[in-house]
ROK family protein
Amino acid sequence: MGVGLAAPVDPRTGLIATPGLLRGWDGVPVAEELGSRLHRPVFVDNEANLGALGEYRMGAAQGVRQAAYLRLSHGVGAGLIVDGRVYRGGSGKAGEIGHLTLDEHGLVCRAATAAAWKPWWEPPRWPRSSPAATAR
């Protein structure tokens, strides 16, 4: 069984790679916990990575070796396919574009990144306070 989390997952440990993103889940081995309760093997990864993998195997990215999957939902993220494999980077944060700084004096996201995409995109602020709306 596969489970997509709305947070980066450290590929070495299977733990959420950025503490505080999913409150109450820091240090929880999600795959082990679910696997023991469901009596099945469980694979856990970031939901954007799994979206990219799905497109690579069965969707728009079939037949290519490099692809980027952009996920815009409750946050902003990307899943990357490099040489036919999901690319996570050393800490599982390779596609976390929602935490790139847009304006060093702007809103701060839960991961404490100054003026990242994520706080502009989160539902109570969108679209009224999105960068495009405030540029008008």
Remarks:
- Residues 100-136 form one domain.
- Confidence is low (pLDDT under 50) at residues 128-136.
